[in-house]
Structures are given as structure tokens and as C-alpha cells.
Design a protein that fits this description.
about 280 residues; Arc Repressor Mutant, subunit A; 11 helices
Length: about 280
């Protein structure tokens, strides 16, 4: 029992098992009942009445809910619901896509015939999970250490599933060596995490600009560009190049006057980008 936390073990159980484990006394749901409720909602493709006007097509094993919706049904505080969902996500039992005032929950379920396979098709799901972990770091809800631990945990879980499937196939072939495919998948998963971290780092730094004044660029769009969207798109492209490469030669703009003007728009430009990012959080 002392070493029970050291090994990753996958347990397959029918949804009926969780129905059996539910406690019938009282209105407040237990953690087991809350988890079963999430399974039930995801299997049914449940959409909360509060978000039915939002055009979102759900995939299998997904439900679209609000924190308040779950809190009311489970008789929990909203903060308790968020903490519970954080814990389930850290265990790899669900994934969240956070929207404005709602969340799409994808339950991690298996048919009993397959585990999480390290295939090209499923890599975006792993990237989405890592992105969700890092989103908490971007907004300051997780420390770098905590986010790193969660990323490492997600990698270990994915590798354990890949290795388990590979070992099963190897046993059938009379071999017990780690295949080149497992090594390749491990390299790709690590690369995916690095890519997500780099993207999250940019988002976190950009987030600092959300309270800066962007009115100067708005006035430039109206007065100097005459409200021409195409012209502003070209200007935005030049500004983005200037942000990422301050030594850019400024192709397509006058090197003297226009480049200095663009430099003066750097802070308003980052402010607009940061505010757009906040809207999608």
C-alpha cells in the first residue's frame, strides 16, 4: 500500500458501477456522484439551458455547462466545483474548453477495447490538454512549478498508455522490447509540450498589456486610414513584425517617418492584442 502512488494503474468500469456507488441520502452530491453526473451528462451530450443559444456542436463524450449550473445541481459552492474539476483534469479524467461564462467538458472514457493511443490523429487532444493546463499559468492561477508538474504528469499518463498498448502488441509477437514507435511518440509528445509552453509564455507576457491605452491606434485607423480594414490589416502585420523583430528592415513601409510612426503604435497594438486574448479566456 505504501507504494500505491508510484505506479499508474488504469481501471475500466461501466457507468453502471458509478450509479451503484451513488449515495441516495441528502441533496448534496458526493464527489463520486458528481463524477457520475459528469459522465451521465457527457454521454447524453447535455447542453445547459443557459447556453443553448450558443452555436456549439458537441463531440462524443462532451457536455456544455456552466459552473453555476453544476453548483446548483450538486449543492456545492462554485469555488468547490472549480477545485473539483481542476482535480479531475489533473488526473486525466476530463478536459475543459473554457468559454465566456461556460465550459465544454470532455470526459476521458474508454470502450474497454482500447487505451489512449499515441497516434497522429489523437495528438491534438494531448495538445489541448496541455494548453488547458498552461492556461491556468497564463492567468496566474498556477505557478511555473505547478504547471510544470501537471505537464509532466500528463506526459507520464500518455506514455503509460502508449507503452501499455505497445507491450500488449509485443507480447503477441513474442518480444518484450520497447518499439521504435514508442520512442518516436515520446519525442513527439515532448515536442508538443515545448510548443505549448512557448505559446503560453507569449500569451502570459502579452496579457500584461491588456490595461494599456489603445486609443492612439484606434484614432489612426479612423483618421489616417479612413476606416479601411484592409489597410489596417497591413499595418497590423507590419506592427507584428516590428514586435517580434525590432531590427526589421520594414519592407513595404517608408524607413524613416513611417517606421517611427509604427514604433509609436507598439504599445497600443499590444494592448489590442491582449484585450482580444482576454475575451477568448
Amino acid at each position: 500500500m505504501e507504494n500505491s502512488q508510484e505506479n499508474t494503474t488504469f481501471i475500466l468500469a461501466d457507468v453502471k458501477v458509478f450509479d451503484f456507488l451513488k449515495e441516495k441520502a441528502g441533496d448534496r452530491k458526493t464527489k463520486t456522484e458528481a463524477y457520475w453526473d459528469l459522465l451521465d451528462r457527457s454521454m447524453a451530450g447535455f447542453v445547459s439551458p443557459f447556453v443553448r443559444k450558443v452555436e456549439r456542436k458537441l463531440l462524443p463524450n462532451q457536455c456544455h455547462v456552466t459552473i453555476s449550473d453544476l453548483a446548483e445541481f450538486w449543492h456545492w459552492h462554485r469555488a468547490t466545483v472549480r477545485t473539483f474539476l481542476d482535480a479531475l483534469e489533473s488526473f486525466g479524467l476530463l478536459e475543459r474548453t473554457k468559454l465566456n461564462k461556460s465550459v465544454i467538458i470532455t470526459m476521458t472514457v474508454q470502450s474497454g477495447k482500447n487505451a489512449i493511443a499515441g497516434t497522429e490523429q489523437e495528438e491534438p487532444d494531448f495538445a489541448t490538454r496541455i494548453g488547458s493546463i498552461l492556461s491556468e499559468w497564463v492567468i496566474g492561477k498556477k505557478t511555473s512549478e505547478d504547471a510544470g508538474h501537471s505537464c509532466g504528469q500528463a506526459l507520464c499518463q500518455a506514455l503509460a498508455a502508449i507503452a501499455g498498448k505497445d507491450n500488449s502488441q509485443a507480447s503477441g509477437n513474442g518480444t518484450d522490447t520497447v518499439s521504435a514507435e514508442v520512442v518516436r511518440q515520446e519525442e513527439k509528445l515532448r515536442e508538443t509540450i515545448l510548443e505549448c509552453i512557448a505559446n503560453a509564455a507569449l500569451q502570459r507576457v502579452l496579457r500584461k498589456s491588456r490595461f494599456d491605452n489603445s486609443s492612439q491606434l484606434s484614432q489612426f485607423f479612423t483618421l489616417d486610414l479612413g476606416g479601411e480594414w484592409g489597410a489596417f490589416i497591413e499595418t497590423a502585420k507590419e506592427l507584428a513584425e516590428l514586435v517580434f523583430n525590432p531590427e526589421t528592415s520594414g519592407a513595404g513601409v517608408d524607413m524613416d517617418r513611417n517606421k517611427e510612426l509604427l514604433k509609436s503604435f507598439r504599445i497600443p497594438f499590444l494592448s489590442l492584442a491582449a484585450k482580444a486574448q482576454t475575451l477568448s479566456d
